[in-house]
Amino acid sequence: MGPGPINADPRVLRAMSAQLVGQYDPAMTAYMDETQALYREVFQTENEQTMLIDGTSRAGIEAALVSLIEPGDRVLVPVFGRFGHLLVEIAGRCGAEVHTIEVEWGQVFPTSVIVEAIERVKPALLAVVHGDTSTTVAQPLDGLAEVCARHGVLFYTDVTASLAGNTFRTDELGLDAVTAGLQKCLGGPSGSSPVTFSPRAVEAIERRRSIEAGIRAEGDAVSAHPIRSNYFDLAMVFDYWGPRRLNHHTEATSMLYGARECARLLVEEGVDDAVARHALHGGAMLEGLRGLGLEVFGDTAHKMNNVTAVVIPDGVDGDAVRGELLDDFGIEIGTSFGPLHGKVWRVGTMGYNARRDTVLTTLAALEAVLRRAGAPITAGGGVGAAYDVYADAGRGAGAGAGAADAAGAADSADAAGGAV
Amino acid sequence: MGPGPINADPRVLRAMSAQLVGQYDPAMTAYMDETQALYREVFQTENEQTMLIDGTSRAGIEAALVSLIEPGDRVLVPVFGRFGHLLVEIAGRCGAEVHTIEVEWGQVFPTSVIVEAIERVKPALLAVVHGDTSTTVAQPLDGLAEVCARHGVLFYTDVTASLAGNTFRTDELGLDAVTAGLQKCLGGPSGSSPVTFSPRAVEAIERRRSIEAGIRAEGDAVSAHPIRSNYFDLAMVFDYWGPRRLNHHTEATSMLYGARECARLLVEEGVDDAVARHALHGGAMLEGLRGLGLEVFGDTAHKMNNVTAVVIPDGVDGDAVRGELLDDFGIEIGTSFGPLHGKVWRVGTMGYNARRDTVLTTLAALEAVLRRAGAPITAGGGVGAAYDVYADAGRGAGAGAGAADAAGAADSADAAGGAV
């Protein structure tokens, strides 16, 4: 129940144990095509160039940035948490002239502040994290695409922490590049990064196309300003995933099986229903933590559905509580980074773990551990408040989420056997 | 039975279906430590800095090169196949001044030619592929370390295609950096790259240490010449795998389970016994292909145990034969790249597929398909020649390999269910 990686859906793990097939086996290339189509639904996009980068979500970020940024380009990064700093860091290593605006961790930017910065900096690229797990809040991204288009700015976001747990529509938001990971609300393991690129982003990347020696044919492109990375050269990655199937890396077969199954599960459930499920169980966790008497951190109006941060009470050893929860109850929660390290706990309700049983169990266990730690808590207040949320949902719009719960319960034997 | 990826060992697939644990769960960090120790045995090294890069083997290559090469450095690459060109390509993108020497594909360099080039070019780094799957031959690497040390040259090789199927000892060869992949003789899926670095390489990398903003503490390093990639910044990767456990990427848990199981299997069998098994079955395949009347490609004195290239007979449609083998017999073999594309077939005997049953079945199926294609073949010559090799081995040193076969046979039900 940490901020991710979390327990994978057992169906994803079973998919990953399927035997390998050859890189150009028709079964494999069909799986690749199918995975592209599935992630178009997940990202809510028509983008042809939608695929996986073989690496963790950080690999997807670097692939997008190194392929979109030419050394010397101005890049604007609004920073509201640890992962904004990561975008600054990676863009800097790509040779960008990086400009930042910052707000206090836990807050988001008013759209007008980002618009003002775009008009002032006139960057080639606006790079912004959607949901920053370090602070639990998500930056609203609507209203930025028009401004970007007007100034010829490419618009990129990372949705690793938010995708599938919060409403996100690539094409409606007018994004040019989006990167993600499996280990949060998608319910899979870290190690594969779904990405999508608009025709405008593809055009920028194609201008730098340079096919490597060893597989280059007569007439193939050799750019004067090739992308600085070979592994993350998206022009070559497009060729590998496209009809030409030009050899680049050897696609990570088991991770592809896993990523495909994550998307199949999500599309079966329905992307909007999955978001509603995260809203329900995240809401129950939020009220439960408040019901225990804990103070919620950050701007809750912009909090992601799938993770909640609470202030560690005065006089309580945060790491000792986390250790006891893990050792005695088999439940992991997280702390955070930088200015929040040791100041907050982060509790996730995401992917396969966004379920009623996990929420109630976590609240009951946390109450027990906090009581032993001598923290002032409201007896029964956590589970009680969560039950109230479920009761309200039962009277309202919660029917879809309830069905998802039942499906989850059927697999709970797998979930219980979590540790390996 | 292609040049890789090949069928994974069923134990590796089972390991990958284990439930995830948190990134800093003591079970997870213990697995990471254990994986490092196992790969020290696999690489035959004492190097502290031995770990996995989260990506395909190409990711391991890029991590080594981008971390070792400072822009402007001279790099020497002896090219004897497609993957030599890949090293040239990646080193070039890292900003190196790349010098090459070349031999015809299918041949290797006499050591003296590489030594002469080192003395002439005086590179900062010698980067050479050990076994190049595109041509099936392995470059002898002994006798180079002393020359490199004398001239202050870092000595790097990629052993993706050769490791665990051919004798390879990192420390005995005096290598400073070695990268690999799971999808060949290690019997796992593509997507994780085992790597190891000598203290001398670590020193070169540490000089460029630059801890990223967002997790940087007072007094932490910020280099003036940071490594150009964040994802492949080995100084940060070392911190993540080391006792400080400084957050970098989120380790790809399922791939780690798989990589760990690949190494466990190899260490259980014994690295030398695994090499002997590859020599036995690779030898049987080689003689079998010759027995069918096919011409073996390349310098067989330097051929890797785990892959054999044969010239496609005149008048035979190479792709049609491969298609028929796959569709009608469920057996995949490969062609090659560049000058060899459509000229040779490559037949693998590697990892879990280096077994007597796979060798004999492949030879029988190939005979049937070649006969239908109208190629002049020796009836029964393939299986017969392979049987002769096994009979000779049975009278000699083949006992260990026989035991490995028996263990493989127990799992053959899994192998038969190969396609997904």
Can you walk through the features of this model?
The structure is a homodimer of 420-residue chains. Chain A is an alpha/beta fold and 420 residues long. Chain A has 16 helices and 11 strands. Chain A has helices spanning 10-16, 26-43, 57-68, 82-93, 111-121, 145-150, 170-173, 199-206, 234-241, 253-269, 271-291, 318-329, 356-372, 381-395, 399-410, 412-416, and strands at 49-53, 74-79, 97-102, 125-129, 131-132, 137-138, 154-158, 177-179, 193-197, 307-311, 344-348. In chain A, the strands form 3 sheets. In chain A, strands 1-9-8-7-4-2-3 form a 7-stranded mixed β-sheet, with helices on both faces. Chain A has a two-stranded antiparallel ribbon with strand order 5-6. Chain A has a two-stranded antiparallel ribbon with strand order 10-11. In chain A, helix 11 packs across helix 15. The first copy, chain A, is globular and about 75 Å long. Mean pLDDT of chain A is 93; it is low at 398-420. At the A-B interface, helix 1, helix 3, helix 4 and helix 10 of A face helix 1, helix 3, helix 4 and helix 10 of B.
